[in-house]
């Protein structure tokens, strides 16, 4: 998992970052064990960083989707998103505009932050 999260780092090609975010999305969907692992390996701040940097609309969509799944019924990841500025990044993402899917994923991620 750390190698996959490492692909989210600045300097990595946007397409690779998007693929890594998509893989994390799929790994943590309805899987508490993977949600735990991704959270413990620094996945939440890495995904929030993608949103904050505004790499591309497609990468932002994937990062928001991954955060949605990571925070689904997972208090520890919800707290981590809040603590690393994820709520503000998601709100900015919604305000910036973009695709309907992007806005929906940002809204779902925010909803999961309770």
Write the layout of secondary structure elements.
Blueprint: H1 2-6, H2 14-28, H3 32-40, H4 43-53, H5 57-71, H6 75-83, H7 86-96, H8 100-111
Helix pairs in contact: 2-5, 4-5, 4-7, 5-8, 7-8
Give a description of the structure.
- Helix content is 76%, strand content 0%.
- With 114 residues, it is mostly helical.
- Helix 7 runs antiparallel to helix 8 (100-111).
- The relative contact order is 0.16.
- The protein has helices at residues 2-6, 14-28, 32-40, 43-53, 57-71, 75-83, 86-96, 100-111.
- It has a single domain (2-111), classed as Leucine-rich Repeat Variant (Alpha Horseshoe).
- It starts with a helix and ends with a helix.
- The mean pLDDT is 94.
């Amino acid at each position: 998992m750390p190698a996959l999260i490492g692909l989210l780092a600045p300097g990595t090609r946007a397409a690779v970052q998007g693929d890594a975010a998509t893989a994390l999305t799929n790994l943590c969907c309805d899987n508490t064990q993977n949600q735990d692992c991704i959270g413990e390996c620094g996945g939440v701040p890495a995904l929030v960083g993608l949103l904050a940097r505004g790499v591309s609309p497609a990468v932002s969509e994937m990062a928001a989707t991954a955060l949605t799944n990571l925070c689904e019924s997972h208090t520890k990841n919800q707290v981590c998103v809040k603590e690393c500025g994820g709520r503000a990044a998601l709100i900015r993402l919604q305000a910036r505009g973009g695709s309907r899917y992007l806005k929906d994923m940002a809204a779902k991620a925010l909803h999961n932050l309770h």
